[in-house]
Amino acid sequence: MSTFPGPRLGGAALVLGPVLVLAGVLLRLPYPFFFPHQLAASVQHPIQMTAAGVCFLAGQVVLLFAVSTVVRQIAVKQPRWAAWSGALVLIGLAERVFHAGFDQAAMDLAHHRGADYATAFVAEAYGDLHLFSFLSFTIMFGWPLLGFAAYRAGVLGRVRSVALAAATVMPLGVLKGTTAWSIVAAVGLCVAFVPSGIRLLAQAQQTDRRTVGLACLGAVAVGALGYLSTLG
């Protein structure tokens, strides 16, 4: 696989994306599911809830690369299934990122104005329409379609295809806590994607010194740009 995202980035994403999602899900496990409790927990346990939110959000972003990798594999034998399933899942992941942004804003409001104020605001604004209000079906149907496409193309076996389809049971919406279904969905992603990621990384060509040096310079540059971004 010589085109974007490539075996190294794609393989790393297949491993890290599901693990980050699972970490985020487990970190918020101790706190009740609905948004008043999540906002209260963000004030009472800010470090743990911040870590949960960061892990879950980072996992969704990394999954964009992981899914792109799987879609490319499916497209070799089943291009139409790859296109439709990939489009639905990627839009669904974008919606998850949007929800995470709302979560962050609401939790910041709870930190600055108190959990009761933030809860009242979220309760009033919860039903407001936005673009993704009309696209929630992509989260519900994208993962099963991708699992079926991966099985049909021979990219995943039956068990791992079902595990991938199980990602659809991850609770949908803003400020959602963890349920048993959340854990099922996150574990399903790990079962489906992590072995493929390890295999891709193992098959990747050995990295030469020049590539390693450029990667290190790139990491330093990204870190510096990330810091500068916080100043604006």
UniProtKB/TrEMBL annotation:
The chain crosses the membrane at residues 12-31, 51-71, 83-102, 131-151, 158-175, 181-202, 211-229. The lineage of its organism: Bacteria, Bacillati, Actinomycetota, Actinomycetes, Pseudonocardiales. The keyword Cell inner membrane does not apply. The keyword Transmembrane applies. Keywords: Membrane, Transmembrane, Transmembrane helix. This is DUF4386 family protein. It comes from Amycolatopsis silviterrae.
